[in-house]
Amino acid sequence: MTIKERYEYAKARYAEIGVDTDKALKLLSGKAISMHCWQGDDVHGFEGSTSLDGGIQTTGNYPGAARNPEELMQDIDKALSLIPGTHRINLHACYAIFEDGEMADRDALEPKHFKKWVEFAKERGLGIDFNPTCFSHPMAKGLTLSSPDDNVRNFWIRHCIACLRISEYLARELGTPCLMNIWIPDGLKDVPADRLAPRARFKDSLDQILACGYDKSLVDVSLESKVFGIGFESYTVGSSEFTVNYAAKNGILSLMDNGHYHPTEVVSDKLPSMLLFGDKVALHVTRGVRWDSDHVVLFDDETKEIAKEIVRNDALDRVLVGLDYFDASINRIAAWVIGMRNFQKALLYALLTPNSCLASLQDKADGTRLMMMQEELKFFPFAAVWA
Ligand code: RNT
Ligand code: ZN
Predict the structure, then answer these.
(1) Residue among 42, 52, 183 to mutate when testing ligand 1 (max atoms within 8 A of CB)
(2) Domains, the chain, ranges and CATH?
(3) What's the pTM?
(4) How high is the pLDDT of residue 325?
(5) Cβ atoms 93, 167 nearer than 8 A
(6) Helices (H), 212-239
(7) Alpha-carbon distance 48 to 50, whole Å?
(8) pLDDT at site 306
(9) Contact 386, 22 (CB under 8 A)
(10) CA atoms within 13 A on the CB side of 295
(11) Backbone φ and ψ of 363, nearest 5°
(12) DSSP string of 159-170, one letter each residue
């Protein structure tokens, strides 16, 4: 059978349960996913740094990490050529491109340092999302936005404000809003003597950053929580309670990274609650193996559940999806491609589910039929639709 014939068979089979495969494919192709540039070079960036700190880590030494902007862009191109649809790329501030020997510290970054990225994205019809880089820097050896040292704290406040300007520039140039996600590594290895003050300082820093003002039609600001980082096992300033409350009270978005919770907590279950109380929510889709290990996203159960919550709550436009993992043990381009395609597969799987029919079985308390249907669906010709 040809791909087309297999598709026609699958289409008929899904039609029997009220699922329109053409419509599912159309919805899937309209969903852009933000591909994280940092998978291509082990989160090093272009400032000459070869070590990564902030409690995150890449492991492995597979050859071929991108060493400069040209190589990273070539690798992104190769990856995108193997991923269906038109997507977005997610940049960190440490990926600024300096020309003619110029350098600027993080608090002095300007839109012009991202001009090359804008040209790259324009030629390919991509959007860009952005992130302040509050790690892998001499000023980030202890706390950053929560530091008791005003000199340090103000440096990172200036950095985040500079990033707001860059995000506005990216959005304006590319004609698509930019998500600017703030994540800080701040935390403590051992039992704190004061859990409140660092959080109060973080809160004040965020207030100062947002008080600078930014064009909300161009930039969505989000705040990412974390449970712990390597070397910060006892205390995390930007915990889930901190970030969710701050975001809700200040009209910014929460960003949930599914590696950032205790191992039995799942983001799929958190999503509907976030959608009930917020207009939009942002995600970092990753795969934690026993801890926030940032393994490549697979077509696994939790990835499928996350996608189901997006699709069946009619939230394809309200959930901003980005990937966030860094694996240096396999071909890095393949790591991008496998993860991006897997999240797309998960979305398609959700789009091919007779969601309202299953929900009505739940409402009728017909758990038997619901279980039977959910299991039967696993053997529907999903692969033929994907192909
Ligand atoms: C770290 C966070 C954060 C980073 C990237 C590089 O635990 O997940 O999102 O991975 O910003
Ligand atoms: Zn993340």
Answers:
(1) 183
(2) 1-19+352-387 (no CATH), 32-341 (3.20.20.150)
(3) 0.97
(4) 98
(5) no
(6) none
(7) 6
(8) 98
(9) no
(10) 9
(11) -65, -35
(12) HHHHHHHHHHHH
Is there a catalytic annotation at residue 168?
no
Residue 229 sits at the vertex; the CA angle it makes with 323 and 285, to the nearest 5 degrees, is 15
CA-wise closest residue to 157 among 92, 199, 107, 116: 107
Using DSSP, state whether 180 is helix, strand or coil: strand
Substitution candidate for ligand 1 out of 35, 44, 56 with most atoms within 8 A of CB: 56
Cross-strand pairs, 223 = 182, 254
pLDDT at 100: 87
Contact 353, 313 (CB under 8 A): no
Give the span between the Cα atoms of 251 and 260, in whole angstroms.
22
Q: Residues 237, 240, 207, 280: what is their CA dihedral angle, to the nearest 10 degrees?
A: 150
Q: What is the 375 CA–ligand 1 centroid distance (Å)? A: 35
Q: How many CB atoms lie within 10 A of CB 146?
A: 25
| Residue 49 confidence (pLDDT) | 83
User: What are 219's strand-pairing partners?
Assistant: 178
Q: How remote is the C-alpha of 26 from its chain's centroid?
A: 23
pLDDT < 70 regions, the chain = none
The answer, yes or no, to whether any atom of ligand 1 lies below 6 A from the CB of 128, is no
- The single-letter code of the amino acid at 61 is N
Of residues 179, 223, 218, the one with CA closest to residue 320: 179
Alpha helices in the chain (DSSP H): 3-15, 21-29, 69-81, 115-124, 150-174, 196-211, 240-250, 267-277, 301-312, 332-351, 355-363, 367-377, 382-386
pLDDT digits (tens, 9 = 90+) for 7-25: 999 999 999 999 999 999 9
Exactly one of 129, 173, 294, 309 is catalytic; which is it? 294
> What is the token pair recorded at 21?
């495969």
Count the helices and strands in the chain (H runs, E runs).
13, 10
**Dihedrals φ, ψ of 308, to 5°?**
-60, -40
129 Cβ below 6 A of ligand 1: no
- Ligand 1 contact via 284 beta carbon (within 6 Å): yes
Tell me if residue 304 is catalytic: no
Residue located nearest, by CA, to atom 3 of ligand 1: 183
Question: In the prediction, which pLDDT does 50 show?
Answer: 76
